[in-house]
Request: fold
Amino acid sequence: MFGLESEEPSYEQRVAAAASLSGRLGVELVAPRIPAAADLELRAPRVSPPEALRAFCRQDNWERAYHSYGNDRTLHGPFGRYPNPPDVIAHPRNEQELEAVLAWCSEEGHCTIPYGGGSSVVGGVTPPADAGPIVTVAIDQLDQVLEIDEVSRAARIQAGVFGPALEDQLRPAGFTLRHFPQSFSGSTLGGWIATRSGGHYATNHTHIDEFVETVRMLTPSGWWEARRLPGSGAGPDPNRLAIGSEGILGIIT
Reply:
């Protein structure tokens, strides 16, 4: 579903399937060999990260090709179509590194794209063709359950954790988030919040809204965080500014 090599048919299987379909349809079909990352001829990076950021930034072919698309990469990858890859992919390992990379992007005017699991099929993480240097900020290193409050049954969780890893960390304490969108295995908590996640397998409380007590988000103006409350009747919920914001207001951590 998410274009993983382990889930794809081998080249030999694809050739056999093409031959079978060719015979049935009376049209010659050819299965192209899926190119390896090293064989891709990508546009040279237009910018390099400063020395202070290089420890967690990548510019190799695999990283740039992978982060060129969301889950719609399966429509382009087999043909090696990567006309507009990001120039730098940052993997901040903590909030201080996230602050540093966003400060650099702000100072230099670089287009910045938050990237969670990349399960989107609507082009939200695809670099815009008319933008200058593009820095994709992947939050996959922020992937820990930091705290579990067993009394209130609430947890403080980093936004880059994928669905299965989140459940694996909650399970030993006897808990589950019990939010299972269709993209569960290939999407992150931050992505669920940023896209107001729901889905076929998210039963009863179908949207992530129901589970959010507060959100912490780094915006161009600094950190934004609503007061943590299990519930409130005091007017509009400020968390709804972040839930469903699609990453345009800041990066949820």
About this structure: The chain has a mean pLDDT of 91. The beta strands are 57-58, 88-90, 111-115, 134-138, 145-149, 154-157, 216-219, 222-225, 251-252. The CA atoms of residues 20 and 157 lie 49 Å apart.
